[in-house]
Amino acid sequence: MSTSKSKMVILGDSHLKGSVPKIDNYLSSKFEVRGFIKPDAGFEKIVGKTILASSRLKNKDVFLCNGGGNDVYNTNSKKVILLIIKFFQGNDKSNIIMLDTPHRYDLSDNLHVHKDVKTFNSKLKKIAKLFKHITILEFSLTRNCFTQHGSHLNGYGKGLLAKQPTSLIYKMSFIFA
User: Fold this and answer.
1) By the 8 A CB rule, do 101 and 72 touch?
2) DSSP E strand boundaries for the chain
3) In b/e form, how buried is each residue of 28-37, taking b as 16+ CB within 10 angstroms?
4) Which of 87, 109, 107, 82 is nearest to 97 (CA)?
5) Maximum distance among all alpha carbons in the chain?
6) φ and ψ at residue 138, rounded to 5 degrees
7) Model pTM?
8) In sequence order, which residues have a C-beta less than 8 Å from that of residue 90 and are 6 or more positions away?
9) Which CATH architecture has domain 6-176?
């Protein structure tokens, strides 16, 4: 009896740059990991080619996705919420781990963008509750995980970020059932 590998497709912006080989290393040989990383892209460009990828994914396969930060920071959060709903609905045959949008450490804490990020993440969590195949992974990284300028992850942060979804996948019974 042959066992086929589960697939993990990583879709994201610059926060996930360099994560594909790290996640591949953390996951067992039961996974085939592929990544499509588009730095500085909005959510629409990040998930634009998922129709091709999703048609081949099954119920033990996983999308790891982040995005929306550039949209939220540019006040396009309503548009990106609609795109995320469409993405969730269109990929109901696979599992989706969606990272929430991180805090911007390069901006003053009293700026409105931080409130926008919190509001966006709150909406994201509410939407995810409507779908059984969605898990929101909170981007629980602190300031020391970001570069000096504060808007991008440093090597330490990228390492921690790669471990978070990997740990979550091992906790999910559907992968190894």
Assistant:
1) yes
2) 6-12, 31-37, 62-65, 95-99, 134-137
3) eeebebebbb
4) 87
5) 59
6) -70, 135
7) 0.85
8) 50, 51, 54
9) 3-Layer(aba) Sandwich (3.40)
Report the distance separating Cα 146 and Cα 159, nearest Å.
11
pLDDT greater than 50 at residue 1: no
Write the pLDDT tens digit of every residue in 92-151.
Answer: 888 899 998 888 888 787 788 778 888 888 999 999 999 988 999 987 788 898 888 888
In 3-state terms, what secondary structure has residue 150? coil
For residues 73 and 58, the answer to whether their CB atoms sit within 8 Å is no
Q: Which two tokens stand for residue 13?
A: 């912006």
pLDDT at 2: 46
Residue 62 has pLDDT above 80, yes or no: yes
